[in-house]
Amino acid sequence: MDMGVAFGKVFMTAVDDLGVLLAFVLLGVLMLRSCKLLKNLFLPAGLLGGTIALVLGPQVLGYFEVPKTWAGIPTPMINIVLTTTIFGTIINGSKLKKYAGAINLIILTYFSQMLVGTLAGIFLSGVWEGMPYSWGLMAVFTYWGGHGAATTAGTLFEEMGNSGMLSLGIIMATLGLIVAMIAGMVWVNIGARLGWATYAKGNADTSDIKLLLPREERKPLGFATVSSDVVNGLALQLAIVLLCMFLGKTLFATLAKLPIGPIATLMGKIPALLYGIVGAIIVWFIMRKTHTEEYADINTIKNIGGVALEVCICAATATLDLKLFVSFLLPILIHMVCIIILMSFVTMLLLRRWLKKEWFELALMAFGQGHGSTPSGLALARCVDPDSRSYAWEAFGVALGVVTPITSTLAAVLPPLAMQSQWIVVALGGIVTLGCLIFGEQFVRRQNS
Predict the structure, then answer these.
(1) In 58-97, where do the E strands start and end?
(2) Whole-angstrom Cα distance, residue 163 to residue 432?
(3) C-alpha distances out from residue 333 to 36, 41, 70, 121, 326, Å
(4) Which DSSP string do the residues of 336-371 spell out, in sequence order?
(5) In whole angstroms, what separates CA 409 from the centre of its chain?
(6) Count of helices and strands (H, E) across the chain
(7) What pLDDT band is residue 81 in, cutting at 50, 70 and 90?
(8) Quick one: DSSP state of residue 389?
(9) Is the whole model's pTM more than 0.85, yes or no?
């Protein structure tokens, strides 16, 4: 068969299978439109669509044959997602100082989940045999990071031979979304009754959560940065993203061929998911130095990553291992309780001690976000601050802007370290957690006293 014809058939198969997958994403949107509970839990349409495909597929009802290509979708899609996270990252020194407390809080929630989650996983693995190695580390990727980080880390773990981690990640991230709202609303009502809320008391209404935005609230997905006579604006942004991925891959492949044994060996072991990140760092740095960064439209690039993430979540959900879920449901729930206790301690006790004023709104944001969904955290805060009067809204945005590019990279860095030894990530989590506790006591508390 002619090579071009063979490639054409492969491409058409990929396009057809992707079309079917996106049809299930649309079904997820319809579910959100028809079910208020699902909408208020901020469950992604891709997750719901993938769940429909899973239920209709051979593991449950057997009415739908899940395309074999779907199992291979998460890796390339997550490559795109991670690449797009780098663009637009500019750290402002004055805001770092102004919102040091919020930044410290977000870092603390991340690394304390890494510490406690891994330790809890080690303990529970001693009770339940057959749990995937270092599964407790998935807490920081699922509860803190959500479905995106869960699929990133889970895919990488699977590529290194640690089977079951992707399915486990999707399950844990989904449970985290549910817990974010249920446990979060408990804290909303407790805080309102105790007078913790600065701008509203007893307001626990989330009925304003919208699916279809009113016309006056709609925002453009992006802007064209060049004339359409030259090139389509979306095509240019996609070209920039793919260039970053190609550059990173070429760089590591070249370094792996160096006649220096240790360096060549190390470069050959670098996870593929880091290629796009490294390439994006280089391209974004060059664009800023040459004053060509305006050719990149950050909103469009972020939306390219958003599309890839939606596809990735749907595919990963549709192909997850249900037997794993049934077998390990109890240890997963126990593990989640440990994270709920941890997050409650950090946000409702430590933050109250450190910030004194308008701390509760930020605590709710961090609590919701720390269980897998930034919108969940914002919705919880809106219950007690419906007019967004608290400083917490900007502080939370700045903190996530600083921390998210780092955590996105760690989702591709930590799994290889954990496969070497779980105690490496325990030590890293412990050191940073201790540093955040000291910083909170010695700086943040005094700054806000």
Answers:
(1) none
(2) 29
(3) 25, 18, 28, 11, 12
(4) HHHHHHHHHHIIIIIHHHHH-SSHHHHHHHHHHHTT
(5) 11
(6) 21, 0
(7) confident
(8) -
(9) no
